[in-house]
Every structure is written in structure tokens, then in C-alpha cells.
Design goal:
Chain A is an alpha/beta fold. Chain A has helices at 40-47, 69-75, 91-101, 106-119, 135-147, 165-180, 192-196, 216-223, 237-246, 270-282, 296-304; strands at residues 2-11, 14-24, 29-33, 55-60, 63-64, 76-79, 153-157, 184-189, 201-206, 209-215, 227-233, 250-256, 261-266, 287-292. Chain B has ten helices and no strands. The chains are: A alpha/beta (310), B mainly alpha (284). The complex binds adenosine-5'-triphosphate (ATP) and magnesium ion. Magnesium ion (MG) is lined by residues 40-41, 81, 157 of chain A. Adenosine-5'-triphosphate binds at residues 11, 14, 16, 34, 36-42, 81, 190, 310 of chain A.
Chain lengths: 310, 284
Amino acid sequence: MIEIKNLYKYYGNLMAVNNLNLFVEKGEIFGFIGPNGAGKSTTIKILSTLLNPSAGLCKINGINVVDEPYKVRRILGYMPDLFGLYEELKVFEYLDFFAACHKIPYKDRNAIINDILELTDLTVKKDSPVGGLSRGMKQRLCLAKTLIHDPLVLVLDEPASGLDPRGRVEMRMLLNELRKMGKTIFVSSHILTELADFCTSVGIIEAGRLVVSGRIEDVVKSQGVNRHIKLKIIDNVELCETILKSTPEISNIEAAVLEKVFTFEMRADDQALADLLRHLIHNGVQVVSFYDKGGNLEDIFMKVTKGQVS
Amino acid sequence: MPQRLIKIYETLKPAMIFEFIYRQNHAPLVSYAISALAICGCFLFGQWPYEQEALHNSFGDRFFTVIMVYTIAVATVLATGHAALSISSEKEKKTLTLLRMSGLGPGEIVFSKAAVSLCFTVFILLPAAPLITICPFLGGISGQAILKSLLILFVSLLFYISAGIFISILFKKSYTCIAFATAFLLILHFGFFIIDDAISYASGASYYSRHNYRYLSVFSPLEMWRSFFDSIQAAVTPNYKPFSPESYFSLTSGESAAIYFGAAVILFYSGVKIFENYLKWREN
Ligand SMILES: Nc1ncnc2c1ncn2[C@@H]1O[C@H](COP(=O)(O)OP(=O)(O)OP(=O)(O)O)[C@@H](O)[C@H]1O
Ligand SMILES: [Mg+2]
């Protein structure tokens, strides 16, 4: 759906994007992660036909963004990191204006806008002026505006920046909802945990260079980072501890004896985890929960990036 | 054809609604305009004078001149200023990014912005309409002359607006655009006279003479309006001899208006072309 090949972007002498190659399948949520100044926004602007690449090829749904920007704009929804809204308009009018810009016939607009307001949870604010919305609501309104022409691909530049924890959770739920509707989503962020549990694939960029990319499981496997496991049992604490300690892949065991909870890191694939669990139960440890905490992305990120800025 | 008209209307409508009623909160202004139109209607419903000769030596023409000069001055400044801010302010408020992504073409954006500026100016000036309309009743000027003056005003507004939008496309900051628009107006109105004076002086005339030769200043809007008001005077004053310095050629107000119209079309077209490039690639 999204294809980037050998992309370069220079600002004068500064190389903001350096030989970037990416491929995002239809229906995926792609998390684009990188520290400040890594070149995320630059890549996203090139993808959304707003910036000319210095070299390289970008295709959205097979359409070249350089050659046919207007065609791309029709199937792409772009949400900038910094954006202005027409503050004097009311929410409904704002969406109606953009619906008209997209040449949506007058008679269909009302229904479409109501649907989108419902989806983005802005129905109560339908008749409020845009200027009076809170930051999070403005963010959602901008997303609503992005959805108005029912784009196939959504390109969102830090949609959750400036939102409170609840707002973040809601934004995540909204993106999941959109994914279920079959949209391909390309979302950038520097907050990893925010992306870790709902992206299907990720790309990590540093100083304009893509350091890792792929489906999350593959990335985790290929980088060989440890998985964080949380284990809660009912009894046999000592036995459990011996078993864990005798397993060579396990490190950093922390035991909370009173709560009967162990946390440890394990360098293993799914099969090895399943084997460990079976082994524990087989030996009479009564397991309440055995939970892969994730957080892996953070380790990968720390491992692959060096804190460079181009 | 109707299909096309509807399409233009559909394109324009959001722009207008957005700019007028809500963004600038013009609701009071619009109602003022409507009542002004109603007053005009009452006057027109009364009696339109058709015996011009009978009305010689009355003061309608002078009254008209005063009102019209005011109207022209306000219209010029407002139209150019509003147009010069139209696109640059969107750049400044970062709303242009979203507008670019909305799939509107450069032509549509520029056209809607121009239409908005035109309507804005017309709405602001509508209160002058009743005053202009009573002039024929005071005598000394015909309804036709008034219509002609409004037509010329309209055409020159088109020119000012396309120039303003052109400036607005070129620069990023709205204060830059306002500065350039002001400079543009000054040069357009007075610059030609200074150049002509300089040329005459260089070729031996005395510097401040009113009888200097005329080269470029024929193209100044001031000259266009002068020749228009001369023609009004000529119509009501027997043996009227307007002051006019020598020139290679002179233009009637209609011809000047035609030139401005051509210039407006060229400016508009090149503005759209430049904007097209801008929309494609420049970041804002
Ligand atoms: N218009 C510009 N002119 C010159 N340099 C620029 C411009 N925009 C970005 N850069 C440079 O390009 C590099 C990448 O910037 P970019 O905005 O893509 O980073 P980012 O990954 O989006 O960072 P952040 O997480 O802070 O949003 C930075 O070093 C920045 O200074
Ligand atoms: Mg950014």
C-alpha cells in the first residue's frame, strides 16, 4: 500500500532522510518511531505530497506521489503535527467546508459528517466553535477532517502528542477502530509504549536512516531482545525459583515473595515460553498468570539507536 | 452550461460562507447591505429623471464626484488589502496545509479567494449605494453615467484583487504582503507621474510644470478616473474644455478599463500558475 524506495531528502547540506526503504501492507498499522529530528515529519510530508524528495520513489496504492499528487491526495488522509484550524467556524461547519472541498455532494454531507462526529466522539460539540475546543478535541477534529473523504491510507504525524493519558488511550482505540474498517495507517511517534501494543509493524528511524523495520514479532526475534515475563503463582515459591534459576535463558529474576510474583527477562521465542510454562506446571507449581509484558520495543529502540541527530 | 454554473457555485459557496458569515462575522454588515438595497429600491421606484438638459447647473454631478472619489479610494485600499491577506494569512495560520490536502486545485482556491475579496469590498461599500443612487434626482448626471462608473469601478476592483492575490501568493508573511500591496498602490497611482516628470525634466521642461509631456501616466488609474469625470462634465457643461496636457495618445475611461481587465486576467492566470507550483511542493 505504501512503498518507499531509496528516499533521500536534503535541506541544503543537511540530510534529513537518508536512503529510506519501507513497505507497508494494506490494513496494517505501521508505527514510525524515532527521536526528535530523526526525519519522521520529513518522510511523512513527502508521503503526503507536500514536500519534494531529493531522490527516490514513493508510491501510495501504486500511485507515484511526485507525478500525481492530486490523485494521491484523494486517497490519502494526512494529519500534520502542527496544524491550524479555522477557529471562527463551528465544528459542523468546519467539517462541512472540507466535505465541500472534497466535492462530496450536498445531500450526502450531513450523514457523513454525523458518522464521523460519532466516530471521533465529537457529537456533543457539533455546534460549538472550533476555537473553544480543548487541545485533545482539536486533535480529534483534525483527525475527523482527515477522515471526511474516506481515505484508504491515513498518515498521521504524532496524533497523540499533547494528549493526556486518557486522550492517548482514546486515540489508540480510535485508530484500532479505523484499522478494523480496513484502512492502512501510518503513524509516527516518539513514545514507544504508545505504539507497542497496537501497531502491527514498526520502523525505527534515526538521523534519517531506517535502522529496523518489519512486523513486530519479526523485529523482536531478529533483534534477539529479552522478553519481560510476569509470573504469579499460589505456592511452591522456592521450587519455582529454582526452576527459573536453572533455566539458562532467564536473567534478571526479581521475586516478590510475599505477593508470590516473579518478574524476569527471557531470551526466547514463543515455543520456549510455552515449554517453560509446561515445565513449571508439570513440576507442581500452581500458576495463576503467566504474562508477556511487552515493552520489548523500548529495548529494541534503545539497542538500535545511538542518540544521533542528523 | 448550467452544470458548470452549479459546479462553480458549489465551489464558491463554502468559501463564501466560511469567509463572510462566520470568519468575519459579517451578519450585521449583510443586513445593513440589504437595507441599503431596499432604500435604493425605494428611490428607483420613485422617478428616474430622463430630461438631462433640464437639469443643467444643478449639483448632482458634483455630489456624485465627491461620493465616488471616496468610494473609489476605499474600494481600492480594501480590495487590495483584503486580497493581499487572503492567502498569506492562511499560510501564517498553517491552515493552508489542510486546504492543500483537501484536493482543491490552485485555480479553485485562487478563484474563491478572489470572489471572497470582491464580495467583501462590495458589501463594505454598499452603504454608499443609496447616496450614489439619489444623484440623478439632484440633476447633472445621467443614470447611464452612473452605471458606467460602477462598471469601471468593478473592473478596476478585479484588477486590484488579482494584484493583491498575486502578492499574497508570492510572500509568506502577511505583513510583507501588506507592505508590498501598499507599495504597489502607491507606484501604480503616482509612480507613473513621477517618471513622466523626470522624463520631461530630462528633455528640457521645467520640473514642476503642469504642462509636462505625458508618457506613462496615461495608464494610471487616476488618469482613468480623471477622463471619466471630464466626460461627465463635458456632458453637462456647454463648451467644456477639460485640462489635458499633451500626450502621444490618450485613453478614454472605457479603454483604460479594458486594459485593466486584460491586466487582471494576466495577473490572475500567472498567479494560478505560480500557486500551482507552490501547492505542489513548497512547505508552509
Ligand atoms: N524546513 C526545513 N528546513 C531545514 N531543515 C529542516 C526543515 N524541516 C526539517 N529540517 C531538519 O530535518 C531534520 C528532520 O526533521 P523532522 O522534522 O523530519 O524530524 P522529526 O523526526 O519529525 O522530529 P520530531 O520528533 O521533533 O517531530 C531535522 O534535523 C530538522 O532540523
Ligand atoms: Mg515531527
